[in-house]
Design brief:
Largest sheet: 8 strands, parallel
Mean pLDDT: 96
Distance between the termini: 55 Å
Number of helices: 17
Low-confidence stretches: none
Helix content: 25-40%
Number of strands: 32
Structural class: alpha/beta
Length: about 675
C-alpha cells in the first residue's frame, strides 16, 4: 500500500528492483522520488544507504527540485564493493510546518503568542530526543526555548532567534519525524573503480613484434614475448587496460584472406574471431603466440607496469573447432544438413559458427563458465565480450551472477552496437561497461544529447566506454578529417566520460577505408598482420602518442574526469563549438575539482565564438570572475559568465581548462 506520506517513482530502480542499479565505490549516485501529501503541511525526506554487511549509513536529506513538481533528490556514496541497498524515508515535518506559518503570522500579528507556544513545545520535544552527547545542541535549543517564552522582547526579535542558523542546523540534524513512511530497500551494486574509470588500449599481439622477410615478403607472427615489449609504450601513454582480441587457435576451414576475402593464401593468418582448430578451442592458445607460461609472463609484465589485461570472450566457433565434433548439438543445423554460419546481411562469416543456446543450454553454460574461470586463473580479471546481444539475456544474467558470487572484482565489457533496449538490458543483468553509439555522434546537438543521456538517463543501467575507433569501425569523420579529427575525437572521449578506448593505429592517424562509404579499414588487421613503425613515426612527429599521453595525464590528475554523473553542458553561439564542464568534490582537504572543456568540432576550420557558462554549475555566483588554466597549452585566462574563444584545429582544437580560483 501507499505510505501515509506517499513515496512514488523511486529511482534508480532497475526491473522493479529485481536487478541492481549501477554504483561504484567512491562515486556519488542520485536517489530521487516523487513525494507529496495532502493539505498544506510540510514534509521531509531522506535517503538511507545500507552497506553490504547491513550497517545503516547516516541519512542524507533530500532536496526538493524545482522541476519536476514534488520531485526530491539526494546523492549518496558507497564506500566498499558489494551489494548495497537504499531506502527513501518521508515524514510529516511539524518543525517546517510551524516555521512556514510563523514567518507569515508573526509579522502580521496573527496568533502571535499561540505561534510561540507551539514553537516552544516543538523545540522542547526535539531537546528531549537529543542523545546525551549532544550537549552543545541542547544548549542552542535551550536559548531558543527561552526566547520563545520571553514576552518582554519584540515578537520579531524572538522569531529571529528561533530561526537563527545555529537553531536551524540543530533542527536539520535532529528532525521530528511524524507519520514516517519508508520505500525500499532497493538494490544498488557497488563495483570497484575500474568498472567506471579507465583508459583502454587495444592491440593484436600477433602484430606486435612481427617481422617481414625482405626477400620473400613472408611475415612471422609476433608472440607474447614480443608483444610484451610494446607494453612499456602503452603504459607510458597512461593507459590502464590492455585489451587483446582472441588469442586462441584460428580455424583453417573457410579461413578468410586479406580484407575478408574467401581466397586466403597458405600463410594468411585468418581472423582471431574464427576460434578453434586442430590445436584446440577457447581453452587453448594459438601456438604461434606461445604457451600458457608465455601468457602468464605477459600478464605479469603488464601488472608490473600498472596495466590490467582484458581478454576477448567470443562465444562462437570455427568449423574445425573441437566443439563441432564433440557437441554438434550446440549449433544450428539447416535444412540441407549443414551447420549455419554467421551472417549479418550483406556480411557473411563463413569461418564462424554461432552457438545455439537453446540446444543443451545447461551444457553450454557449464562449458562457458569453465572457460571463463580458466582464464581468470591465469590473471585475467576483465573480459571484453564480443557480440553479447546475439546471445540470450538469460544466459548472461546467469553467467555474470556466477562469476560475481565468487569473484566480484572480475569485470565484463559489452561490445553491443544494437538497439537501446538490448544495450540497457545487458547492463541491467550485470555487464559492468558498454560500448556505445559515441562513434556515430559527431554533430554538436547529437553529442550534447548523448552526453546527457549516458550521464543522467541511462547511468543506472549501463556505464559507457567511448572507444574512438575499433578494428570494425573507422568512421568517416576520421577518414576525411585529417589529424585534427583524431585530436578532436580523442579529447572529447577522454574528457566527457570516465572510460574511453583506443585501438592501435589511431596514434598513427590510420584513416584509409576499404572503399567509399565503408567503415572497414583497408587491409584490416582482423584478417592480416600489420607491422607498424611506432618509433619512426614518433621521431618524425607523425604520432599522436604525445597528445594521448597528455590526455591520460590530465584524467589521472582530475577526479572530476573520473566520474560519470557530474557533467553539465553549457552554451556556445557557434554550432561547431561544444562546451561542457565536470565538477567533483575535492579529495580530503582540497577544494572542488572543476574542469571546463571547449572543443571545436570542425576539423577543417578555425572557429571564434562566445561561450556562456552556467555559473552555479561551476560552484560560482553569476557575477564571479575566475582564473582558468589550459592543461593542453599551459595558458592562463580570466573568465566569467561570457567568454571569447578561438580554436584552430590545425593547432589545438580543444581547451581543457582547470578552474583554479576566483580572479
Amino acid at each position: 500500500m501507499v505510505g501515509r506520506i506517499p513515496v512514488m517513482d523511486v529511482q534508480p530502480v532497475v526491473d522493479l528492483g529485481r536487478q541492481s542499479a549501477k554504483a561504484t565505490v567512491g562515486e556519488p549516485f542520485p536517489v530521487s522520488a516523487t513525494i507529496f501529501r495532502e493539505g498544506h503541511d510540510k514534509l521531509g525526506a531522506e535517503v538511507v544507504l545500507i552497506s553490504p554487511d547491513g550497517v545503516r549509513q547516516a541519512p542524507v536529506r533530500m532536496e526538493k527540485l524545482v522541476d519536476p513538481v514534488d520531485r526530491h533528490r539526494a546523492w549518496v556514496t558507497p564506500t566498499t564493493t558489494g551489494a548495497w541497498t537504499f531506502e527513501v524515508q518521508a515524514w510529516s515535518d511539524p518543525i517546517a510546518t510551524w516555521v512556514h506559518a510563523a514567518e507569515i503570522k508573526v509579522p502580521a500579528g496573527i496568533d502571535v503568542e499561540l505561534m510561540f507556544t507551539e514553537g516552544r513545545l516543538l523545540l522542547e520535544q526535539v531537546r528531549s530526543l537529543l542523545p546525551r552527547k549532544a550537549t552543545a545542541e541542547a544548549k542552542v535549543l535551550a536559548g531558543a526555548i527561552k526566547a520563545a517564552a520571553d514576552t518582554t522582547r519584540p515578537p520579531e526579535a524572538r522569531l529571529a532567534q528561533l530561526l537563527a542558523g545555529d537553531v536551524s542546523a540543530v533542527l536539520a540534524a535532529y528532525p521530528l519525524r511524524e507519520l514516517l513512511s519508508v520505500a525500499g530497500p532497493y538494490p544498488a551494486y557497488a563495483d570497484r573503480e575500474r568498472a567506471l574509470y579507465g583508459s583502454w588500449y587495444e592491440f593484436f599481439p600477433r602484430s606486435e613484434g612481427a617481422v617481414q622477410d625482405p626477400t620473400t615478403g613472408a611475415i612471422t607472427s609476433g608472440t607474447f614475448a614480443t608483444a610484451a615489449e610494446r607494453l612499456d609504450a602503452v603504459a607510458a601513454m597512461g593507459f590502464d587496460v590492455l585489451y587483446m582480441p582472441p588469442i586462441h587457435p584460428i580455424g583453417e576451414v573457410n579461413r578468410k584472406g586479406p580484407n575478408n576475402t574467401l581466397t586466403p593464401g597458405p600463410t594468411d593468418p585468418g581472423s582471431p574471431w574464427a576460434i578453434g582448430s586442430k590445436h584446440g578451442g577457447h581453452d587453448a592458445i594459438h601456438p604461434e603466440l606461445g604457451t600458457f607460461d608465455d601468457f602468464d609472463a605477459f600478464v605479469a609484465r603488464a601488472g608490473e607496469l600498472g596495466l590490467e589485461v582484458a581478454l576477448d570472450l567470443a562465444l562462437q566457433a570455427a568449423p574445425d573447432h573441437p566443439w563441432v565434433t564433440s557437441n554438434p548439438e550446440w549449433f544450428t543445423t539447416r535444412a540441407d544438413g549443414t551447420i549455419a554460419y554467421a551472417e549479418n546481411p550483406p556480411k557473411k562469416y563463413q569461418d564462424i559458427y554461432p552457438v545455439n543456446f537453446d540446444n543443451d543450454p545447461r551444457g553450454i553454460c557449464r562449458e562457458v563458465l569453465r572457460i571463463v574461470r580458466l582464464w581468470m586463473s591465469h590473471g585475467v580479471r576483465i573480459f571484453r565480450v564480443d557480440n553479447p546481444h546475439t546471445k540470450p539475456l538469460q544466459f548472461w544474467e546467469w553467467l555474470l551472477a556466477e562469476v560475481r558470487r565468487t569473484d566480484p572484482d572480475v569485470l565484463f565489457l559489452s561490445e553491443a552496437f544494437t538497439k537501446p533496449p538490448m544495450m540497457h538490458g545487458l547492463g541491467s543483468v550485470g555487464f559492468h561497461q558498454s560500448y556505445t553509439y559515441f562513434t556515430w555522434r559527431t554533430a554538436k546537438w547529437e553529442i550534447e544529447e548523448y552526453l546527457r543521456e549516458v550521464s543522467s538517463e541511462s547511468d543506472h543501467l549501463m556505464r559507457p566506454n567511448f572507444f574512438v575507433n575499433t578494428p570494425d569501425i573507422l568512421h568517416e569523420f576520421l577518414q576525411y578529417g585529417g589529424p585534427a579529427a583524431f585530436k578532436i575525437r580523442a579529447a572529447l572521449a577522454a574528457t566527457s566520460v570516465p572510460s574511453w578506448g583506443v585501438y592501435a593505429g589511431y596514434e598513427l592517424f590510420e584513416h584509409v577505408a576499404l572503399k567509399p562509404g565503408s567503415e572497414e579499414y583497408l587491409d584490416t588487421e582482423k584478417f592480416q598482420i600489420r607491422i607498424r613503425d611506432w618509433e619512426g613515426a614518433e621521431a618524425a612527429g607523425r604520432s599522436l602518442a604525445p597528445y594521448l599521453t597528455r590526455l591520460n595525464e590530465i584524467r589521472r590528475s582530475h577526479v572530476s574526469l573520473q566520474r560519470l554523473r557530474n557533467i553539465t553542458v553549457h552554451h556556445a553561439d557557434d554550432e561547431n563549438i561544444l562546451v561542457f564542464s565536470k565538477r567533483a568534490e575535492g579529495r580530503a582537504g582540497e577544494p572542488d575539482d572543476t574542469v571546463i572543456v571547449v572543443i571545436n568540432l570542425d576539423p577543417h576550420g578555425t572557429r571564434e565564438t562566445t561561450v556562456h557558462l552556467d555559473m552555479p554549475a561551476l560552484g560560482l555566483d553569476w557575477s564571479d570572475s575566475f582564473v582558468v588554466h589550459d592543461e593542453i597549452t599551459g595558458a592562463d585566462w580570466t573568465w566569467g559568465e561570457h567568454d571569447y574563444v578561438r580554436l584552430d584545429p590545425g593547432h589545438e582544437p580543444a581547451h581543457v581548462l582547470t578552474v583554479r580560483s576566483p580572479a
